[in-house]
Amino acid sequence: MKFSIITPSFKQLDWLRLCVASVKDQIDVATNEMRNAECGMQDAISEIKNQKSKIPPLAVEHIIQDAGSPGIEDFAREVGADFYREGTLISHSPFHIPNYSLAIFAERDEGMYDAINRGLRRSTGDVCAWLNSDEQYLPGTLRKMATVFQRNPGIEVAVGDTVLLNDKLEPKAYRKAVAPDRRYIQIFQMNLHSSSLFFRRTILDRGHWFGDRFRSIGDAEWVAGLLDAGVRFHCIPGPVSTFVLGAGNLSRNAISEVEVGLWRSETRVTALGKFLLKATNAARRFTHGAYFPRRAGILIFMFQNIGKRTRSPERWLDFRFRV
Predict the structure, then answer these.
(1) CA pair distance 255, 8, nearest whole angstrom
(2) Secondary structure letter of residue 265 according to DSSP
(3) Are 264 and 187 spatial neighbours (Cβ–Cβ below 8 Å)?
(4) Residues sharing a CB contact under 8 Å with residue 149, sequence separation 6 or more, in sequence order
(5) How far is Cα 117 from Cα 63, in angstroms, rounded to an integer?
(6) Residue 129 and residue 152: Cα distance in Å, rounded?
(7) The whole model's pTM is what?
(8) What is the DSSP letter of 233?
(9) pLDDT digit string, tens, across residues 200-253
(10) CA nearest to 139, candidates 31, 215, 246
(11) CATH 3.90.550.10 fits domain 2-317
């Protein structure tokens, strides 16, 4: 199974370096799983073959759409990426990792969602996702998702749990994935994190691309469009990504507030309706365990050590983000 991971980028190269590392080592984790299955069962050849059959082959292409960050060409050489400027290949990476490719396209775009669309049009994977520059996949995430999609041909969209970090990359909250509610998204907010969301290419084949109306809440509009089309969201237990909630996060800026107000005004709901919608959503999330605290320690890439993941101290986390 081949994954296409799209990363929109602009002037966040320090964060992007961590993001790239978290995608690249998905192949390393997968290779080690195969190797461990072989080494640990040398006395049972039939069991080895059975284990291998349960592990779908994994390939990853990581496409970065950069809007013109200073130093992006040097960055491409540093991380071993093919580098394109305005669609023209400038430099080809001399490094080769089986089943993994990294390409950076430096070109003007009309914002984050236009950049994601551009990357998706260039992609060739069976399953797609987008991971922002300041987000990371946790170890084994793509292997986990490959297994889910392989064993469940009817699933088009899958979403896992997310660990929220502060600007210092300290875990501060745990957000359990719960299937989104269409009206709640438009009236209040999208109650899942895009960093933990994966979808089959069939979604794009059916015309579900990002719109050009919103620059900050386009992901919420996109999810709402999927729900309108009858697409079901399959929730996967366990954390699969990290999401940095900092001062520069799009979900908290002034543009977002304006766009949320505009979108909300397009649907009529009474004060009582809002109350019932919020109460129903809270009850549904409580039923799915979204508010329960969890003791979690995660392995992520840190600014101080790009070469390998660092384990954060285990701590109790719940859904509330505490500064």
Answers:
(1) 18
(2) T
(3) yes
(4) 1, 126, 127, 155, 158, 198, 200
(5) 11
(6) 18
(7) 0.90
(8) E
(9) 999 999 999 999 999 889 999 999 999 999 999 999 999 999 999 875 554 557
(10) 31
(11) yes
